[in-house]
């Protein structure tokens, strides 16, 4: 459903309901009139009819809400439309590793929106593990826009009734606004000789990664490991055996990707770290000295953006929320994503020499579609009692 059709359909539905109600009340008035017109032989009957007609007329006027040009009576609980205000507040809920990118992009959007609409946008921002952020929104965190680590999390918010179906078709690239691949990071000089996914399963290796139960990046990490076996000719049994060995080498599962990065770099834990390529690039920009490998067999980490329909309609912020989402696809915004390590979704920018030199090519790239989509992935790997839980149980 297109962006402009939704309010039109709601208005049409509302007007139709009122028409039905109005016709019902008119029929009641006419029925009363037919009943009483034969009883107007006395002043008392005439007065009774007058009073009945008056009461029903008042009820009809109250239910019809006057004319269609009075929106406040049509939706008495709605917040005044933000477009009429000098300042508007927008709540962005995103996964942890996008913080630096959004902090660079948001001021540019605010400036552009002020120029085009003479309105100041004030952002409230929340960052954390994608799974945790998803639950927070479902439980009542009133996000206007969600930028999450995986489409499966956005779908959970849709199933909770907060986002209308078809959200991924309302913007370019099926709703994917940023993307990355998985990277292996080692200590300077790579003292343990870690070069491939297979090396992570060796005895004596300590790996740092986040928890798939709370972190979107951790689910991507798991899929990258699994994919490395499947794409090289292995079956599910071999993939399960390999991934089980890797997770035996994980001393702790952090809450999100940023905590995994901090545990590895700031706290000195582990011999290797699996994380987003963009996190590695950001760490290098901050002066960290590290050795990173982008494996030739990898997974395309795709991050979706969506407007939370129920909340923007409640807040009266649909126009500015949709404007922000569209802005994230502009070359200006995509350039900021690229600067901070995200592979751009803009094809022209992706083919530029600057971007091509920055991001190594991946020979074999798996996708979510290869695994049947997120519903199938979650059921097979991350649901209660599924493969990840079985692997964790073996560690105890």
TrEMBL record:
Gene3D superfamilies: Periplasmic binding protein-like II. Its main location: periplasm. One of its GO terms (cellular component) is periplasmic space. GO terms for biological process: sulfate transmembrane transport. CDD domains: PBP2_CysP. It is found in: Periplasm. It comes from the Bacteria. One of its GO terms (molecular function) is molecular carrier activity. The chain crosses the membrane at residues 43-62. This is Sulfate ABC transporter, periplasmic sulfate-binding protein. Keywords: Membrane, Periplasm, Signal, Transmembrane, Transmembrane helix, Transport. The keyword Transmembrane helix applies. Pfam families: SBP_bac_11 (PF13531). InterPro entries: Thiosulph/SO4-bd (IPR005669). The keyword Zinc does not apply. It comes from Nostoc punctiforme (strain ATCC 29133 / PCC 73102). Belongs to the prokaryotic sulfate-binding protein family.
């Amino acid at each position: 459903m297109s962006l402009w059709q939704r309010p039109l359909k709601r208005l049409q539905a509302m007007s139709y309901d009122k028409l039905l109600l109005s016709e019902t009340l008119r029929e009641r008035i006419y029925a009363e009139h037919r009943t009483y017109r034969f009883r107007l032989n006395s002043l008392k009957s005439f007065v009774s009819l007058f009073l009945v007609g008056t009461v029903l007329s008042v009820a009809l006027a109250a239910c019809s809400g006057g004319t269609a040009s009075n929106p406040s009576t049509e939706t008495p609980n709605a917040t005044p439309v933000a477009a009429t205000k000098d300042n508007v507040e927008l709540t962005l809920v995103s996964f942890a590793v996008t913080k630096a990118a959004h902090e660079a992009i948001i001021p540019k959007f605010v400036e552009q929106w002020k120029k085009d609409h003479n309105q100041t946008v004030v952002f409230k921002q929340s960052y954390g593990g994608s799974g945790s952020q998803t639950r927070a929104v479902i439980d009542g965190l009133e996000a206007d826009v969600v930028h999450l680590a995986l489409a499966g999390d956005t779908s959970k918010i849709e199933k909770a009734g907060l986002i209308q179906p078809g959200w991924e078709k309302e913007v370019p690239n099926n709703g994917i606004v940023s993307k990355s691949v998985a990277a292996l990071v080692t200590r300077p000089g790579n003292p343990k000789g870690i070069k491939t996914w297979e090396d992570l399963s060796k005895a004596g290796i300590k790996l740092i990664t986040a928890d798939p139960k709370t972190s979107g990046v951790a689910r991507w990490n798991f899929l990258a490991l699994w994919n490395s076996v499947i794409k090289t000719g292995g079956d599910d049994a071999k993939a399960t055996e390999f991934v089980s060995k890797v997770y035996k080498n994980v001393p702790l599962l952090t809450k999100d990707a940023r905590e995994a990065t901090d545990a590895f770099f700031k706290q000195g834990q582990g011999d290797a770290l699996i994380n987003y390529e963009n996190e590695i690039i950001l760490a290098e920009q901050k002066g960290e000295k590290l050795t990173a490998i982008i494996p030739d067999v990898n997974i395309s980490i795709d991050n979706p953006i969506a407007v939370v329909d129920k909340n923007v309609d409640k807040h009266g912020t649909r126009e500015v929320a949709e404007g922000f989402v569209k802005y994230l696809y502009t070359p200006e915004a995509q350039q900021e994503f690229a600067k901070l390590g995200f592979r751009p979704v803009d094809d022209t920018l992706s083919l530029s020499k600057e971007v091509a030199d920055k991001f190594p090519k991946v020979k074999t790239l798996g996708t979510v579609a290869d695994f049947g989509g997120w519903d199938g992935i979650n059921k097979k790997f991350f649901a209660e009692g599924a493969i990840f839980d079985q692997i964790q149980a073996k560690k105890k």
